[in-house]
Structure formats: structure tokens, C-alpha cells
Amino acid sequence: MIGKEDLLEAIAPTNRGISASTEQRSAILAAATRLEERNPTPDPTGAGDLLNGDWRLLYTTSTELLGIDRFPLLDLGPIYQCIRLEGCRVYNIAETCSPLSLDGLVSVVAQFEVVSGQRLNVNFERAVFGLQRLAGYQAPKTWIDTLDSGRRLPAVDFPIKRRERPGWIDITYLDQELRINRGNAGSLFVLQRV
């Protein structure tokens, strides 16, 4: 699909959005909008086989996520969003790399509720920050099992106070390999199935 190729080509040199110029951000937004107009899945939240699974972030405008890269001696590594329809949970996992071999991990667990064919309301419940090695992190799939075990982890591990208004994401494009989300803070997310 030409629209998808255009979007992926525009995203490629931006390091997930970290190094995107104003012109690149505009071009990516335009390419994403064109692709969203041709969404092959009119009811993304009802398309469980497509939505469920592990997704790797290719691009975002989220200053919260991109801000992780601004910490001294840390480089932002791969970022994943893993959706588990059974249990209605979302796991956001960001890996960090350090020249001191102190690779880290930032992960957030949220409960979601389907509110329309496109929208998921999201309530964040738990955050875990720490060193990958000490926490036993190896890959998103096994990390999710660790998080779901309920045990306290050798990391900064704390509950997130429930907000009155949940955050939300609109799934504006979904196919076998690509997903586009728009968030309540105005952020754009482009993810590829792992």
C-alpha cells in the first residue's frame, strides 16, 4: 500500500520522533492522516485478532515518551505497547541503554475499557522503573508475565493513583502489521506488530 510506504519512509530517519524536525513532523502527520482515511478495519476495538499482541513503537509525538531520551547517560531503546484483550490490559515498556552497561526499563500497566469502535479509555495502575538486569527483564512477553505475577520487583515499583477522568486512545488505523493511535493529549503513535 503506497500510503503505508510513504508513512514508514517519512518516519525512518526520525529515531521514533526524537530527531524529527518541524517539517518532518508535518510530513508524518499528513502521511498518517492520509493512511487513516483508508483504514481497512472500521471497528478496530472489535478486531481482537488484529489488535491483541505486542507492538513496537516506530514514531510518536508524545513528549513524555521522547523525554526519556533526555536523561544524561541514557539512550532510549525500543518501546513496546502490548495489548492483552483477555484481562483488558495495556503494558507500555520502554528500554533504555547506558554506556555504563546499566540498561534500564520504564514500564507502565493500565486497565482499558472499550467505549466505541475506535476508542479505549485507559486507567494507569502501576509503574515500574529499574535496571533490566536486576529486575530480570529479557523481553516484553516474559516481562508481562513477571508483572502479572503480583510479586514485588527489585525496582521502583508503585501503584498509580486512579484519576477521575481516564486517558484514552483512538485507534485510527489497524491492519495485520501497522497501528496508528491518537491519544487524549494530542499525541500521535505509529506502531508495528512485533
Task: Outline the fold blueprint.
Elements: H1 2-11, H2 22-36, H3 48-51, E1 53-60, H4 63-66, E2 75-84, E3 89-97, E4 104-114, E5 119-131, H5 132-135, H6 140-148, E6 156-159, E7 167-174, E8 178-183, E9 188-193
Antiparallel strand pairs: 1-2, 1-9, 2-3, 3-4, 4-5, 5-6, 5-7, 7-8, 8-9
Concise summary:
The chain is an alpha+beta fold and 194 residues long. It has helices at residues 2-11, 22-36, 48-51, 63-66, 132-135, 140-148; strands at 53-60, 75-84, 89-97, 104-114, 119-131, 156-159, 167-174, 178-183, 188-193.
Notes on the protein architecture:
The protein is an alpha+beta fold and 194 residues long. It has one domain (2-193): Lipocalin, CATH 2.40.128. Helix content is 24%, strand content 39%. The chain contains six helices and nine strands, in the order αααβαββββααββββ. Strands 1-2-3-4-5-7-8-9 form an eight-stranded antiparallel barrel. Helix 1 runs antiparallel to helix 2. The protein is globular and about 45 Å long. The relative contact order is 0.18. The model has no long low-confidence stretch (mean pLDDT 92).
